[in-house]
From TrEMBL:
Cell location: Cytoplasmic vesicle membrane; Endomembrane system; Golgi apparatus
GAE domain sequence ranges: 589-692
Keywords, alphabetical: Cytoplasmic vesicle, Golgi apparatus, Membrane, Protein transport, Transport
Entry annotated with the keyword Membrane: yes
Organism: Oncorhynchus tshawytscha
Protein name: AP-1 complex subunit gamma
A cellular component term, taken from the record's GO annotations: AP-1 adaptor complex
Keyword Disulfide bond carried by entry: no
Gene that encodes the chain: AP1G2
Amino acid sequence: MSPSVRLQEMIRVIRGARTQGEERGVIQRECAAIRAQFRQADNGTRSHNLAKLLYVHMLGYPAHFGQMECVRLIASPRYNEKRVGYLGAMMLLDEKQDASLLITNSIKNDLSHSSQYVQSLALCTLACMGSAEMCRDLAPEIDRLLRASNSYIKKKVSTVCSHTHTATPSIMVELGVLHGAVVLITELCERNPDTLEQFRKAVPELVLMMKGLVMSGYSPEHNVAGISDPFLQVRILRLLRILGRNNDTASDAMNDLLAQVATNTDSSKTAGSAVLYETVLTVMDIKSESGLRVSVTHDSVIKRFLVCIYLYLLEVLQKIVQTDHNAVQRHRGTIVDCLKDQDASVKRRALELSLALVSAVNIRSLMKELLLFLSSCPPELRAHTTSGIFNAAERYAPSQRWHIDTILHVLTTAGGDVRDETVPNLIQLITTATELHCYTVHKLYRALITDISVQSLVQVACWCIGEYGDLLLRGECEETEPVQVTEDDVLDALETVLQSHMSSPATRGFALTATMKLSTRITHNVDRIRSIVSIYGSCIDVELQQRAVEYNLYTKYTVHLHNVFNDHLFLVLNSMISSDRFFFLFVAIAPPSVTVYEKNGVTLKLQTDTQTDTGMTVTLTATNSTDGDITGLTLQAAVPKSVQLQMKAPSGDVIPAHGLGQVTQTVLLNNPNKVGLHSDTVQIDSFPSTAW
């Protein structure tokens, strides 16, 4: 980094440091360059270098060697240098350092400057780090500026007065700018009770100011959440409380005002709650009327303050739960009750704390409360709630069935607010839960025919039907009440998804793929499947069109090869590697065991397990020797119409890399008529040139 590098460039390089050591190296080199330039004569880069040094100071690195440079720049006649010098003084100097005394004369000169902006720089610095000696020496200049007509300067002076009284209580100055004046008077009254009688004379003026704020219209520069300058209102109320304490006259003068503030302040916002809170404290602390005390302790007011207390307590518990989980568990019931609170802020804090309390011991009971909350929570909290439920379920699920049921419940309730990875994660979970395939496909089928508006739920349902449709059609399920479903029922459901205007392109892709997969699991509706799929051969969506064309090519050019028992069986392997779909067409010799495909790292073996006069059971085994997993595996078989084919569900759809696992699928073949079929296959390697 060159010594003349700009501040923005230095910040960029520091932020780009990959390690703390690299950051320290960059800062050390830059500080060395800044030191060297500070020793040189004025070359116009002093303010530039000091600005860089102040950024280094903000990062926590030593920058004390720039103190004298601040003194030099403050004495400069150029405004841009003077501004950086004063900023450096406020950051690098304090009232305890001797160097701060060196700028007293420069501040005195600048307080008499013709420019209000230069005067403002001096006043801000004095209010920030002015020592008792500086305040005492500069008191005449401060008093002179306080009597000036410029309100911009008077606001700055009021801040100086507040600091001056803290540093040197003996110095008394009169103040006329609202906010600064109120802050100063409050501090004077708290530190010196002898001044109370003098300032009680100003109660009528304070009441008029407060009424003006309460009844004034919208003011963009002072409005906060619909409340006109709530900071000033709070300061005035706090001062009125001090002045009205134990004084009947002052209390009577502010009773009507306090009633008006309590009635007209909107406490639904934080700013309004702050004003109302100060109003209640003032009413209860002064000698107010009994009716006014009753009105400010009404249930609605107290409830609003309880909300603030809830927020504070929930924030405290959130900090404690990180170090003492069991201590917070004792308050779980109260925390869960806060989920039902009407205030959105309380709900959010309670939700975060409830999710932090989930453990393997309470996962079932606490998840019921979270799912109940999800059904009625505000829209802005749904995404956070679903994400938290998924994380808790994945970490502490007592069983796979409970895990699947919980996710399906979330998808049914708030499927539009789940993360994008929810669908593939749930598919992976279902795939590994082999014993729950029948239960899951029945449950998802019922959800699909009930509502197709939740896209994530529909996508998982379509995938599951495509994978385990044979279990659905069988109508036998021990885990749930079986439903008699026909092939037409399943295809009707998928076709409804394909034709619905609510279905996204991704959802249609799931439905179309499921429809194609069913062609290997049903026997009476293959022509209907071809008809459904063929429609999408000219679809405007490229993905759907590609899937439909590939399937149509397969069904159109399938060659029925030889007798199914002693000759050949025609198979199609359709898989996904790195999101690119490909087809393998091959002929496999059935008896008794043979490698029928071995290419691109994929090996497929066919083995005859049992064989009778009219039937045969074949097991297909796929392995993968490549470096990456092969996902989305689908095995398809085609036989003559005289032969009955039944393909069992595969053991999975992912072939692990490096041969670390395998996928198997059982095929049942039945040839009741013992028909012998023959056909020829001809391969044409080239065409006459006139054919093109």
